[in-house]
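Quick question: what would this complex look like in 3D?
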Amino acid sequence: MLATQNSHTQQSAEYWHLVTDILSQAITGELVGMSNFATLCDSVDDVLEKMEAVEHANCERGHAEGFMAIAQKHQLEPVINLNGYYWKSVRECFLKYAAQKDFIGCIIIQEVMLECFAVSMYKDTGEALQNDIGELFLAISKEEEEHIEHSIDLLRAEMDKDPLAFFLKIEQIHKDCMTILGEWTAKSDLKGHCGVCKDSCMKESLHHAQLDLSVIRGNALNLYMKTLDRIGLPGQKTLQWIIQLPA
Amino acid sequence: MDHSAPRIDFALIGHQENWQKVEILVNTMRKMEGTEPLSLAAIKDIYPYIPPRKVFDITVNTLRGEPVQGIYVETFISPEHINIKHLQQNLSKVKAACICAASEGARIASLGGFTSIVLEAAGNPLQEVKNTFFTTGNTLTASFICKGIIKACEQKGKDIHQCKLLVVGSTGDIGSACVNYFAGVIHSLLLCARNNKQLQQQAASLQEKDINCQASVSLNALLPQADIIILVASSPVENWDTNLLKETVIICDAGYPKNIIRHLPVHLKQSIFCGGMGFISPGFYFTPKYMEDFYQYPCAGVSHGCLLESIVLSMEKKFEAFSTGRGNISKEKMEIILAMSKRNGIDVSPFFNTEEIWLSSPSPATTNYE
């Protein structure tokens, strides 16, 4: 029974502070995802796409609820702050493309960039925690993976229509959105406190759960690059994008 | 839309030998976009996570007709992981790099340096992918090493027939090619390798042919006799006793990384040269123009023999798995690839080491770029 292996008496206070911060980031991120899909529903005219956006929003809501429930079970009090610097910036980035009714732009932000980070980070976290919270992270990571798969087919077809226009679009979105994620996952908090962690930045406490920021960030960027490869973007160009990110 | 790339002549698959080179590569790419350089610590955090991919295009001029077009594919293997300890992880990265070269449309690809393990390994599963042929490039490397030794002896006034040649890493693909090349030419062979069983088998096989040779896993036991030394593998020279070296010794460093010079006393620094290197007299260039920062040899026009093999083969329109497996490099194949190389303007490089040009022949001044 993994769920009972890591009780409060077996793990340090620092460990549980870290897990609380991780859950805070995950819940906030899922709620940003939910809001993004809800916005997308308004931004598209196609009825089937509207229905799909609602379905995805509901899926993200379910993930947030799952994380909230497990936090409650362990008597943890996560911080939910959609106005924290990084999450707010990501949301604003999404809204910019939603305002232009740019369905593809929105999909790239939500289902490629954010989901790649979510899938990879949830997997690393899940494997490190080795308890019922970890199991939940792993299960949600699997579900989010399906979102990426879905988007790859869609975006590959979009690229086929006009490769150059698609390339220029994703390059611009990368600069807009991945720069924020690059700053968020940098070794130090490049833009000050994130507004979600309870006290100091959780990046300094990751070792309490045998997590390593370099590995987490590296794995997330690796999945992102492989996803761009699968869409059909030139690897030489995407390498240049990654190399330019803040670190 | 057809996602298959238009065909290109060749791909060079490689890795960086040390973090200093990685730092230059990454910060050159950042500089070209006007971004501030990254610290080495920050580079180390991201570099090993990058999936293998094309980094730049290469154009190589030839003495015979149109230039050939190719690409460089980086494996993004960490320099400190270039060893057997990380074999599985490295194999996986090299195989991904091979698939990348095939997806980019290369007709032939060289597996440079440590990456050749994929083709040297038993089973040899990657001779061809999507009509892309793979070669270790070891035959041309071995040819450049052997011809370099002969030329170095001429320039240092040594009679090669009277010399004792020590090959460190003698049982490997390139090492055994060098041993076979000089067997019967040189006065005697001194063989050194880590695997004693393979070493003794090699010695026994040579002795059956009346070749004068001596074998030992101990480098220091053989050093005092050596007139010429070829270091092929990432040789275990940390523990060698340089006091045992002859004053007139010639050392060809053909291993990875090339750091032997650090272990040598000052008076012997002019005795060591980087072996297995070729010189492209008609010139070559990279696009984007990373060459200015990324190219680090003390004279122009130089590249590794293993990488040059696929370039030479593409110049000759011979798209085939020329060098594969282990122990398959014959003297005849060495002469064939060297002849092809020379007629396209590619020959043994000037003698240099990591600190200076040793003997400059041919003159780098004759190189014509772009």
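Answer marked as accepted. Chain B has two domains: 10-139+278-348, 142-276.
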